[in-house]
C-alpha cells in the first residue's frame, strides 16, 4: 500500500492544478490527521497555495464540536476544504452541512472517507463536486516466472 505521503502530495498538486490558492484543512485530533495536515501545509506552500485555517476536532465529537467545525468552515472565505477525516467523523459534519443547507463548499476527500458508500448515498446533495483520492484495488501483477523456473534457468547456465 502506498504511503500516505503520496496521497497528500497528490492532493497538494490537485489543489494547485485547479488554481485553488485559498483552502481550509480539517481533520480529527489524531496522528494521521496531524501528519497529513502538516505535510499538506508544507506541500501547499511549495505550490503557492495558502491555507486559510487548520482545524482539528475530537474524534468523538459532541454537538458543540460539530457546530464549531461547521462555523469555522462557514465563516472562512476559503470555499475549498481538504478533509483528512474518518468516515464516521465526517458523517456528523456532513449531517450539519445538510441541516444548514451548506452546499457551496468544495471538499477534497482523503483516502479515509473517499470510498465511504454510506456518506455518498446519504449526503449526495452536499457532496456534489467533491473530489476524492482512493487506492485502486487490483490483483497483484503476475510474476514473469516462478521461483522454480528461476532456479531451473539459473542451473542451466
3D structure, described in words:
- With 157 residues, the protein is an alpha/beta fold.
- Helix content is 48%, strand content 17%.
- The protein has 7 helices and 5 strands.
- Strands 2-1-3-4-5 form a 5-stranded parallel sheet, sandwiched between helices.
- β3, α4 (87-100) and β4 (106-109) form a beta-alpha-beta unit.
- α1 (4-17) crosses α2 (31-46).
Going across the biggest sheet, name each strand in turn: 2-1-3-4-5
Q: Can you give the mean pLDDT? A: 87
Termini gap: 36 Å
Shape: globular
Along the chain, the helix and strand elements come as HEHEHEHEHHEH
Sheet with most strands: 5 strands, parallel
Structural class label = alpha/beta
Low-confidence stretches: none
Give the beta-strand count: 5
Q: Percent of residues in helical segments?
A: 40-55%
Number of helices: 7
Give the tags.
single chain, 157 residues, alpha/beta, 5 strands, globular
Summary, kept brief:
With 157 residues, this protein is of the alpha/beta class.
Describe how the helices and strands are arranged:
Elements: H1 4-17, E1 22-28, H2 31-46, E2 50-57, H3 63-75, E3 80-84, H4 87-100, E4 106-109, H5 111-114, H6 117-122, E5 131-132, H7 147-155
Parallel strand pairs: 1-2, 1-3, 3-4, 4-5
Helix pairs in contact: 1-2, 3-4
